[in-house]
Amino acid sequence: MASENIKVIRTPVRAPNANAHMERWVGSARRECLDRLLIVGRRQLEHVLRIYVSHYNRQRPHRARDLNAPDSSDRPVGQSSSSIRDFRVNRRDLLGGLIHEYDIAVAA
After folding, report:
1. pLDDT tens for residues 14-46?
2. At 20, which helix (H) or strand (E)?
3. Distances, alpha carbon 41 to alpha carbons 29, 35, 38, 63, 95, in Å
4. In the prediction, which pLDDT does 57 show?
5. Pick from 92, 93, 90: which is nearest to 105 by CA?
C-alpha cells in the first residue's frame, strides 16, 4: 500500500457504519448465498465464495449502476427492429441451482 501512496485507515471494531460498503457486501453474500448452503469445510467455503464473487461482479445487477454488473460490457441487447419473440435465453445454474445466470443466445 505504501508503494502506491495509499493511506491505510483502520476502521473501529463493531462499527458497521465505518465501513458501509464492506458491510453491504458481506450482508449480500450471506443472504444470497451462505445462509442457503451447508458449508462443511474451508475448501468448500473458498469454492463457494469464488463462484459468488464472480457472479456478483460479472452478472448480478446493481441498482447503483442502473442494473448493470460492475464488470459487464455495456453492449446493446439487440436491434430496435427485433421483437421479444426473436430472442432465446441461455440459463446457467451455479452452486447446484442456488444462483442462476442468464444470457441472450446467439442466433444460429
Report:
1. 887 888 888 888 999 999 999 999 999 999 999
2. helix 20-32
3. 17, 15, 9, 33, 15
4. 86
5. 90
Q: To the nearest whole percent, how much of the chain has pLDDT over 90? A: 26
Locate the domains of the chain by residue range: 2-104
- 3-class DSSP state for residue 104? strand
Q: How many whole angstroms separate alpha carbon 99 and alpha carbon 93?
A: 6
The DSSP element (H or E) to which 44 belongs, if any, is helix 42-58
pTM for the whole structure: 0.67
Contact (CB, 8 A) for 19 and 42: no
Are 104 and 87 contacting, i.e. CB atoms less than 8 angstroms apart?
A: yes
Residue length, the chain?
108
Q: What is residue 94's three-state secondary structure?
A: strand
